[in-house]
Specification:
27% of the residues lie in helices and 19% in strands. It is built from 11 helices and 14 strands. The radius of gyration is 20 Å and the shape is globular.
Length: 355
C-alpha cells in the first residue's frame, strides 16, 4: 500500500483534532483496565534523578564510583532514571525540540511525503506503531528515523523545516557521547569491564523518534502510547514541560515529572537479558491531556540485527544459571514488528524455567 493509496485512509491525530471533535473516535478508546486513572498516580514519588555535575569531562570516559553505584541501584529498582547536568548544551536541546515542533506544524501534504506503513523505513511519519495490526490506535503523531551512520542517512531527512537536519546532527552527536559514558557506568555496576556493553554492541543502531501528542477532548479514555518496554539496550528521552510520561513501578504508575533540560534514561529488553534479569527493562506509557499538546524526542540504541542476545557469560560464573535463552536480535525484532507494540512481554516468552 503506497502513499497515494493511503492518503484518504490516514489522517494524523493533529489534523483530526484541528478539524474539530468533542469525542475520541472509538478506535482510540482503551479498555477500562488500560485507561489512565488519576487515583493510580503517585504524585509524591519520582524516578531517581542522577546529577552528573563535574562528571562529564570529555577527557575522562568513566564516571565516579558513587555515580556508578547510584546508576546500578536505579537500573535494578526502576529500570530508568533522569540525568541532569549531563553535558549536552541546553541550546542544542532547545533547537532539537523546536525542529521537531516545526516539522509537526508543516502542512499535511508535506508531512504525508514521509508517510509509510513500512515499520523498517529509514524515515517514517505515522501515528500508531502498526496501523494495520494495532487493535487500539495511539493518540499521537510521530516521525521515526535512523541516525547511524550519519553520513548515510542525513540525505533521507526532510530539508524542510530548514533547521531540521542541523539540529538533529548536533543533538545525535552530543547524545552519543553521553550514552557511551552511561553504558560504561552500567557495565561497571554489573561487575563487568567499563567498555563491556560498548564493545559487545560495536555495530549498533541509533534511531530517533519525535512524538507529538495533541490535546484530547477525553484524555482519560485513551493513551498517547500504550504500556510497553523498549526492545534495544538503552533509550534517552527528552520531554517538554508538559507531564505525560509514566513508568510502572511496583504495580503503580508513577509520573515522570519534567525537569528542564534533563534526559530520561530507560533500559531496554537487551540489557535485561544481558544482566540476566538483575536489571529491568522499564515498562512505560504516555498519557495525554485536554489543555495542551506535548512533544518528546527519543533516541534509542540497539545492537545490529545479527547480534546474539544472551546473558553475559561473566554474570553466569559461580553456578549462576541463565534466566533467558539466547536469541538473534533480528528474530526478536521481527516478533515485535509482526504485531502491535503492545504485544510487549517477549521477555517472558524467552525466560527459561529454572530448575
Amino acid at each position: 500500500m503506497d502513499n497515494a493509496n493511503t492518503w484518504q485512509e490516514f489522517m494524523g491525530v493533529k489534523a483530526m483534532v484541528e478539524k474539530g471533535l468533542d469525542r475520541v473516535p472509538y478506535r482510540f478508546i482503551r479498555s477500562l483496565q488500560e485507561r489512565p486513572k488519576v487515583s493510580q498516580y503517585e504524585e509524591k514519588e519520582n524516578i531517581p534523578v542522577i546529577d552528573l555535575q563535574d562528571q562529564v569531562d570529555n577527557s575522562s570516559f568513566a564516571l565516579s564510583a558513587n555515580l556508578v553505584q547510584a546508576i546500578g541501584r536505579a537500573c535494578h529498582e526502576w529500570g530508568c532514571f533522569q540525568v541532569v547536568n549531563h553535558g549536552i548544551a541546553p541550546s542544542t536541546m532547545n533547537e532539537m525540540m523546536e525542529a521537531a515542533r516545526e516539522f509537526f506544524e508543516l502542512p499535511d501534504e508535506q508531512k504525508m511525503k514521509y508517510f509509510t506503513l513500512d515499520t523498517m523505513s529509514k524515515f517514517r511519519y505515522a501515528s500508531s506503531f502498526n496501523l494495520q495490526k494495532d487493535k487500539i490506535l495511539s493518540w499521537r503523531d510521530f516521525i521515526r528515523y535512523s541516525c547511524h551512520p550519519l553520513d548515510d542517512v542525513v540525505s533521507l531527512w526532510p530539508s524542510t523545516p530548514s533547521s531540521f537536519r542541523k539540529a538533529n546532527v548536533n543533538f545525535c552527536t552530543q547524545i552519543h557521547g553521553l550514552v557511551r559514558k552511561l553504558c560504561g557506568a552500567i557495565s561497571q555496576s554489573l561487575g563487568l569491564p567499563e567498555k563491556y556493553i560498548e564493545q559487545a554492541f560495536t555495530d549498533y543502531s541509533q534511531t530517533m523518534v519525535c512524538n507529538y501528542y495533541p490535546k484530547c477532548p477525553e484524555p482519560e479514555s485513551t493513551l498517547g502510547v500504550g504500556s510497553h518496554t523498549d526492545p534495544g539496550w538503552i533509550t534517552a528521552l527528552m520531554q517538554d514541560d508538559v507531564t505525560g510520561l509514566q513508568v510502572l513501578h511496583e504495580d503503580r504508575w508513577v509520573i515522570v515529572k519534567p525537569i528542564a533540560h534533563a534526559l530520561v534514561i530507560n533500559l531496554g529488553d537487551v540489557l535485561q537479558i544481558l544482566s540476566n534479569g538483575k536489571y529491568k527493562s522499564a515498562e512505560h506509557r504516555a498519557t495525554v491531556n485536554g489543555s495542551s499538546d506535548r512533544i518528546s524526542v527519543v533516541t534509542t540504541y540497539g545492537p545490529s540485527l545479527d547480534t546474539i542476545i544472551r546473558p553475559a557469560p561473566e554474570i553466569l560464573l559461580n553456578g549462576c544459571k541463565p534466566v533467558y535463552r539466547e536469541i538473534v536480535y533480528k528474530e526478536y525484532m521481527e516478533m515485535i514488528l509482526s504485531g502491535s507494540l503492545e504485544d510487549k512481554r517477549l521477555l517472558d516468552f524467552h525466560r527459561l524455567e529454572i530448575q
